[in-house]
Amino acid sequence: MIYIKDTGSNDPAYNIALEEYCFKNLRQFDEIFFLWRNEPTIVVGKYQNTIEEINTEYTREKGIHIVRRISGGGAVYHDLNNLNYTIISNKLEDKEGFNFKEFSKPIIETLAELGVKAEFTGRNDLEIDGQKFCGNAQAYIQGRVMHHGCLLFDVNFGELGNALKVSKDKIESKGVKSVRSRVTNILLHLKQPITVNEFGEKIMEYMKKHYPEMEEYKFTQEELKTIEENKVRMYVCGPTVYNYIHIGNARSTVSFDTIRRYFEYRGYDVNFVSNFTDVDDKIIRVANETGMTAEEVSKKYIEAFFEDTNALNVKKATLNPTVMNTMDDIIAFVADLIDKGMAYESEGDVYFITEKFEGYGKLSDQRIEDLQMGASNRTASEDDAKKRNPLDFALWKSAKPNEISWNSPWGKGRPGWHIECSVMATKHLGDTIDIHGGGQDLAFPHHENEIAQSESKTGKKFANYWMHNAFVTMGEEKMSKSLGNFVLVHDLIQQLDPQVLRFFLASAHYRRPLKFSEAALQEAAVNLEKVQTTFKNARYRLETAVDALPEDAERLAKFAAIEADFQKEMDDDFNAANGMTVLYQWLKEWNVYLEQEVVSKAVLEALLEKATVLFGIFGIVEKQEALLDDDIQALIDERLEARKAKNFARSDEIRDLLKEQGIVLEDTPQGTRWRREA
Fold this sequence. Notes:
Layout: E1 2-4, H1 12-25, E2 31-36, E3 41-44, H2 50-53, H3 56-62, E4 65-68, E5 76-78, E6 82-89, H4 100-113, E7 119-121, E8 125-128, E9 131-141, E10 144-152, H5 157-163, H6 168-173, H7 179-182, H8 196-210, E11 215-217, H9 221-228, E12 231-236, H10 247-265, E13 269-274, H11 281-290, H12 294-311, H13 327-339, E14 343-346, E15 349-352, H14 368-377, E16 393-398, E17 413-415, H15 417-429, E18 433-439, H16 443-458, E19 463-469, E20 472-474, E21 477-478, H17 489-492, H18 498-506, E22 514-515, H19 518-542, H20 552-571, H21 576-594, H22 601-616, H23 629-644, H24 648-660, E23 663-668, E24 671-676
Parallel strand pairs: 1-2, 1-11, 3-4, 12-13, 12-18, 18-19, 20-22
Antiparallel strand pairs: 2-6, 3-5, 6-10, 7-8, 8-9, 9-10, 14-15, 15-16, 16-17, 20-21, 23-24
């Protein structure tokens, strides 16, 4: 028997991947045991319908992960006060004879040693005084079983109840009124309170005592790489939500959406986190000017952000955490920096000691001596008087009159700007992330400060790669709200097709400045129309195409070669401009093919499918032509004839076609009526 030492990762995607790797690959060991914890997460069963059981709006708002495991069963809520255990065994040959109780023995007997009577009940539940504290699930592969359980130690039941949708029937069948009444925390039953980590140590002591031959298994670097293979952890600094986003903001959003989509096209699983800064001087100013609260201002413009970016066909991030929902973590992070001697409190403010961080300025290629000189020469502010060094930056700022604040060990206040992203990035993606992105204006001081405070806390490299998108310019100046030369996306998409704007923003290299003008938008509109026309022509030729032609394989090979060129260009630092040039070549070849007297349905369908994927990387989708009233009536008449002929497949096909076009059919005794969906 072996055990896996706690890896220190609270990333649910990583932990689930680690568990699956051990199950499928370490078959030479008869038994494997390990404990692990996740940050706030809902883990769903292999076959579970997430829509039915998860409060999606709440989980997105709170930044709660949703991951799927390979075992069956229902949804389970995890947070850092859960303790999960996994037992993998080769000894089971017949899963029908599986003894759930045997796998729960270490937990039950450890609790008994702590003075708590727990028992195995039902099919696979563990209970204390009739209340469930652990659910279990299993997976099987060729006589091998993986059994895992989630132990409720001191879980936040409020979050559990809000994050999960619980069936009314399920609740009533148990004779109780709420989720909370059916479950309990282990901590409530202990005679002497201990931490969740101490409880985990007690379980390991039990295992080592009863399985003295158990040895620690250490993963090789190759194995760790395999576990992490095809996973990208990406953090992008999101907007400060006090206004609608302008074109410059949209450029960053679209650039990193395109990069994310390209990763996914290449087969990577991207955990994409982008924050909202919902606590800021600008937000407070707007709140005071409008009579709204800071929360109301941020909520309004977060909703507007999603409305505008959805129009640009930007995929929603895996998570969009906010500062307000991360406050406890921020305070704990700042306290840790103080404990490590990297920060100090001064009159209710907390500042990072910049000169103690070796390598400060490395991202922006600046020497700390030059930075200190520049800071010393600037006009002193009231805050500078509180600092030991003008270059020190605020981690926590004491509250000013009439502004939103939170209690902290240093008095009422709110976070400094830089600390927010460090906390949200490491909380949701781990101590070291793969890619950190944002606008080029964030490199210094924001990203520089993120590196300093994050690496000072964790002792690990903060980000493997930094990516900064260039500005959108108006004339020769960058577009910005402070300069007053900005164009709001909210306004612009009322005047032109949002896909035109998306095409304009997506088809340039993210590191190159992008000049905004009417001429540039017109050029994007023309190029987009070429794409849409090709789609339209392909659909038209599909109606009369033959099933296949002898040269189909040769034709498809030619297009595959063009796709390989596209990959080569995009693999070079996501060079969208060159990648799009290759796709124009794709269109050219496609149009040449469409001009042939006879075309193959197999080729056209393959090209339509592939083009949907390739142009989808840039957020471009095929535009469906709206049906005219006469066309609709003709289809309805055809459907009627199909029903009379008992050709129900064609009848259903026509109904589905009309539904896709927003046409609702109503079959009445007087005939079929139709209406457009509102």
